[in-house]
Every structure is written in structure tokens, then in C-alpha cells.
Automatic annotation (TrEMBL):
<comment type="function">
    <text>NDH-1 shuttles electrons from NADH, via FMN and iron-sulfur (Fe-S) centers, to quinones in the respiratory chain. The immediate electron acceptor for the enzyme in this species is believed to be a menaquinone. Couples the redox reaction to proton translocation (for every two electrons transferred, four hydrogen ions are translocated across the cytoplasmic membrane), and thus conserves the redox energy in a proton gradient.</text>
</comment>
<keyword id="KW-1278">Translocase</keyword>
<feature type="transmembrane region" description="Helical">
    <location>
        <begin position="20"/>
        <end position="40"/>
    </location>
</feature>
<keyword id="KW-0472">Membrane</keyword>
<dbReference type="InterPro" id="IPR010096">
    <property type="entry name" value="NADH-Q_OxRdtase_suN/2"/>
</dbReference>
<feature type="transmembrane region" description="Helical">
    <location>
        <begin position="321"/>
        <end position="342"/>
    </location>
</feature>
<feature type="transmembrane region" description="Helical">
    <location>
        <begin position="257"/>
        <end position="281"/>
    </location>
</feature>
<feature type="transmembrane region" description="Helical">
    <location>
        <begin position="146"/>
        <end position="163"/>
    </location>
</feature>
<keyword id="KW-0520">NAD</keyword>
<feature type="transmembrane region" description="Helical">
    <location>
        <begin position="123"/>
        <end position="140"/>
    </location>
</feature>
<keyword id="KW-0813">Transport</keyword>
<dbReference type="InterPro" id="IPR001750">
    <property type="entry name" value="ND/Mrp_TM"/>
</dbReference>
<dbReference type="Pfam" id="PF00361">
    <property type="entry name" value="Proton_antipo_M"/>
</dbReference>
<feature type="transmembrane region" description="Helical">
    <location>
        <begin position="429"/>
        <end position="449"/>
    </location>
</feature>
<comment type="similarity">
    <text>Belongs to the complex I subunit 2 family.</text>
</comment>
<feature type="transmembrane region" description="Helical">
    <location>
        <begin position="393"/>
        <end position="417"/>
    </location>
</feature>
<protein>
    <recommendedName>
        <fullName>NADH-quinone oxidoreductase subunit N</fullName>
        <ecNumber>7.1.1.-</ecNumber>
    </recommendedName>
</protein>
């Protein structure tokens, strides 16, 4: 006999601890570091960085048992079986978690040997907290968990951008980042409330079913909810016209934080965008498909044209150029998502593959920028001229990273990623978008190749050493400006980050099918 308790939803269920282990481990170590920072003497603060690196390595190792992609927890259980789940560690989630945790690990390596006087305990706590939210988001399968994960990843990032307390640019960047993000989140929450009002559920798989049969009187409300929900994720991806915070934020933030935002922050936005469009809103593909196609074209064009302007004078910031390049790359990443509205969700694999390639080479470029900034804090484009004469291996690595971003040999992995994205647009019948992308790739060649050529030009004549600027002196004697052509020893962790990203990029350029096969996903 079936009892009343058997026929109703059960609130008691077991938790798959293995499935949630990666973000849980990172979050737990973050809390331990926050407490330990209160008791550790200053000379032992580096232990906090080592603990952070160990936590990220452990989280990556815990992804190995999940490679079968068949782990779900926090599900709606009934007397007849299992319904929708709030957390699913499938193949898509695994790929994005590898990306965000690997990106956070490389950011930790960039930060560990940094000579800037940053509050160690706060920095490592905020970095791990943001990484925990970023690792949670791709496995989230309801809108509530998605929003919470997005904010857990974003809120510590605001503080990381403004962590240089005595730097006015850092404070301004953090404020701009915070205010624009809060507005985007408010709009997204309004959209989520509209979607919930029309469907009565927040689970992505159930939303797909119920939105297909929305009553006519609620159709307009549902479409508005879908559009507003996408705004929040479009902001995180730095898609135009929600990109305006990127240049000032990247320039004002510490370089490792800018690298983190360019890769992990962007991955969070794209994974959330993929989940809500392909899983939750497929019945409204006629709404978000054309919109994302237009946004993709606008984003890549705005990013490349603005990046092109940075090369007009050598006094422009290299980090600002990387920021605009990041906006342009976001446009390419949007193309397969828009294409999925016209064909199948298999197009999403192109976005994932491109994101993996971009993460490796962009973090490598930021690692080289961090190395250059140790002797030239302004990090101007002119500071890279003749880098081959003083640091030949670093110049070769930077040239390789830039060629990968441009999609030129020997950066074969970048070329394959762009071809895959281009093919997704053609297969979906978006010929006009493929043409726009081709034009933008040509535009991008100019500033990538100009920067690459500067690395191998004859260095400029040495200028007489001048006193360190006040900003450098405020950061301590280690940041004093060095005479041109007198490189200082790089920290082991920074050297390891450059070497690791270069090695991975070379391997993937030799066998690009590795990343393409690994990134192949099917969300249904």
C-alpha cells in the first residue's frame, strides 16, 4: 500500500559528496585561510599562498573520479523516482570546472611571487572564494543556484579589483565594476522572477517543458523574462553593449586579477549563458538566437576597432590592449551559442573549445605582462620593444601567445579554434555573421602582428635612470624602476606559469584534436 508520505515529494535525500567536492574543497580552504591569517606572523604569510595552490590542485584532482559525467545531487525525489536536480556534474560541467580551476591555479602562480604589498590573507581568501563560485556555476541546474553561484564568483572579484587600497585607479575600477555589475544582476533577477511567475519552477529542464506551453496571456511576460535573464550573463561575458567596464577594470586591477577576470570571469558568464539558452530556453530560440548573433557581431567589432586604436601610440597600455582584445574574443565565443538556436546544441562544443584555447594563451600573455611590469610598471606597448634582446625565451613565448590569439601558425590551436567557430556559423546558415567574423579576424591581425614584431625589433637606446615614481615607491623598493635592458630575476612561480601555458599551447598546436574532442558536449 502506498502511503501519503510515499506519494509526496521527499525532503530527505542523500548528498553525493564526490560530485560537489571540488567547489567544497576550495571554499573550505578559503575559510581556513581567512582564520589562519589572523594568527600567522608576517614572515609566514607565504604559507597561505602555498595552501591556496594546494587547494586548487586538490580540486582539479577531485575532477578525475567525475570523468564519467554521471553524478547528480540535490534532486527532486518522489515516490516514483528522481526528478530535476539542482547540481549535475556532467561532461559540460567537468570541462568548465577544469577551465576555471586551472585558470585560478595559474592566477595563484602569477600572484605568489608578486612583489606588490597586498594583504595576503584577504587576497587568497577572495581568490579562492571566487573560484569556488566559478566552479559551482557550470554544474548548477536551476536558476536560483545559477544566480547564487554567479554572485559568489563576482562579489569577491569586486574586492580583488580594489585590493590596492592606496591606488586611486584601483578604487575607481572596483567601483565601476561593482555598480555596473549590480545593475546587471538586478535586471537578471527581474527576468528570473518573470520566468518563475509564468512557469512556477526554477529547474532548467522543467523550464524547457513549461515554457513550451505558456498560455497566450503570459507569452509577453515570458519573453521579457527570457531577455532580461540573459542580460546578466551577457554582462559577465563582456558582450557589447555591456562591455564598458572592462578596459578601466583591467588596467586598475592588479595584473593577476585582470588575468583572472579575462579567463575565469568570462568562463562563468559563458557557461551560465549556455545553460539558460540551450537547456532552459530552447523554445524561445527565435528570441535569443537573433539577439545573440547581433550581439556577437557588435562585440567582436567594437573590441577589435578599440584594440586597433591602442596601437596608434606606443604610450598606450599593453593591458588596455589585452582588455579590448578580450572583448573581441568574447564576440567570437558568442557565435556558436547563437548558432545553436538555428541548428543543434552540438555547436556549443565550439564555444567550449575556443574558451579552453583562449584561457591558456591569454593567461600566458598576462603572465608575460606581469613579468615586464616588474621593471616597467607602466606596462606600455613600447616597453615590449626589443624584449628578445634581454629575455629571448619570454619574447618567444609572448610571440607565440599573440599568434595563437591571432589564429596564425605556429599557433595552430588558435587557428583550429577560429575555424571551428567560423564553421558553426556557416552550418547554422548565419553567413552574414561568418563574413563579419572573417573581417574582424583580419582587423585583429594588425595589432597582434604589430605587437609581435615589436618584440624582435632592435631595442631603443637606453635612457638615463630616473628616480622611481611615487606610485612605485609606495609599493616598496622591489617595484623601483630598473634601467632599460637590466632584467631582474623572475619569481619561480611566475616563470612556471609562463612555461606551463607555453608548453600546453605548443602541445595543443601539435595536436589540436585533443581540445576539440575534449570539448565536444551534448547538453541533452
Amino acid at each position: 500500500m502506498i502511503t501519503a508520505a510515499d506519494s509526496t515529494t521527499s525532503l530527505v535525500q542523500s548528498v553525493d559528496w564526490l560530485a560537489i567536492a571540488p567547489p567544497v574543497v576550495v571554499a573550505t580552504v578559503a575559510l581556513i585561510i581567512l582564520v589562519a591569517d589572523l594568527f600567522l606572523p608576517e614572515e609566514r604569510k607565504p604559507l597561505l599562498g602555498l595552501a591556496s595552490i594546494a587547494a586548487l590542485v586538490a580540486a582539479l584532482a577531485l575532477l578525475i573520479p567525475l570523468r564519467d559525467g554521471n553524478h547528480s545531487t540535490f534532486c527532486l525525489t518522489t515516490g516514483t523516482g528522481t526528478g530535476a536536480c539542482s547540481y549535475t556534474a556532467d561532461h559540460f560541467a567537468l570541462i568548465i570546472q577544469v577551465l576555471v580551476l586551472g585558470g585560478a591555479l595559474l592566477t595563484a602562480l602569477l600572484s605568489f611571487g608578486d612583489t606588490r604589498r597586498l594583504p595576503a590573507g584577504e587576497f587568497w581568501f577572495l581568490l579562492l572564494s571566487s573560484a569556488a563560485g566559478a566552479a559551482l556555476l557550470p554544474a548548477a541546474r536551476d536558476l536560483a543556484t545559477l544566480v547564487v553561484a554567479l554572485e559568489v564568483a563576482s562579489l569577491p572579484a569586486f574586492a580583488l579589483v580594489g585590493i590596492k587600497r592606496d591606488d586611486r585607479r584601483s578604487s575607481e575600477a572596483a567601483l565601476k565594476f561593482f555598480l555596473s555589475s549590480v545593475v546587471a544582476t538586478a535586471v537578471m533577477l527581474l527576468g528570473v522572477s518573470f520566468v518563475y511567475a509564468t512557469t512556477g519552477t526554477l529547474h532548467l529542464t522543467e523550464l524547457a517543458t513549461r515554457l513550451h506551453d505558456v498560455p497566450d496571456q503570459f507569452a509577453t511576460l515570458a519573453k521579457a523574462g527570457v531577455a532580461l535573464t540573459l542580460v546578466g550573463f551577457a554582462f559577465k561575458t563582456a558582450a557589447a553593449p555591456f562591455h564598458f567596464w572592462v578596459p578601466d577594470t583591467y588596467v586598475g586591477a592588479p595584473l593577476p586579477v585582470a588575468a583572472y577576470l579575462s579567463v575565469v570571469g568570462k568562463s562563468v558568464g559563458f557557461s551560465g549563458l549556455i545553460l539558460v539558452t540551450v537547456i532552459a530556453f530552447p523554445s524561445y530560440a527565435d528570441v535569443w538566437g537573433p539577439a545573440l548573433a547581433v550581439v556577437a557581431a557588435l562585440t567582436m567589432t567594437v573590441g577589435n576597432v578599440a584594440a586597433l586604436r591602442q596601437t596608434a601610440t606606443r604610450a598606450r597600455s599593453a593591458v588596455r590592449l589585452l582588455a579590448w582584445s578580450s572583448v573581441a574574443q568574447a564576440g567570437y565565443l558568442l557565435v556558436p551559442i547563437a548558432s545553436a538556436a538555428y541548428s543543434s546544441d552540438e555547436q556549443i562544443g565550439s564555444t567550449v573549445a575556443y574558451a579552453l584555447m583562449y584561457a591558456v594563451v591569454n593567461l600566458g600573455a598576462f603572465a608575460v605582462a606581469a613579468l615586464v611590469a616588474r621593471t616597467k610598471p607602466d606596462n606600455r606597448l613600447s616597453d615590449y620593444r626589443g624584449l628578445y634582446a634581454t629575455r629571448p625565451l619570454t619574447a618567444l613565448a609572448m610571440g607565440f601567445f599573440l599568434l595563437c590569439l591571432a589564429g596564425l601558425p605556429p599557433g595552430i590551436v588558435g587557428l583550429f579554434a577560429k575555424v571551428t567557430v567560423f564553421s558553426s556559423a556557416v552550418d547554422a546558415g548565419l553567413g552574414w555573421l561568418a563574413v563579419v567574423m572573417a573581417v574582424n579576424v583580419v582587423i585583429a591581425l594588425y595589432y597582434y602582428l604589430q605587437w609581435t614584431a615589436a618584440l624582435f625589433r632592435a631595442p631603443e637606446e637606453a635612457e638615463p635612470a630616473s628616480p622611481a615614481p611615487a606610485a612605485a615607491l609606495a609599493d616598496g623598493p622591489a617595484m623601483a624602476v630598473q634601467p632599460l635592458g637590466a632584467p631582474v630575476a623572475a619569481p619561480v612561480s611566475l616563470t612556471a606559469a609562463i612555461a606551463l601555458t607555453a608548453a600546453v599551447g605548443i602541445v595543443l598546436s601539435g595536436a589540436p584534436q585533443i581540445v576539440l574532442r575534449f570539448a565536444a558536449v551534448n547538453l541533452f
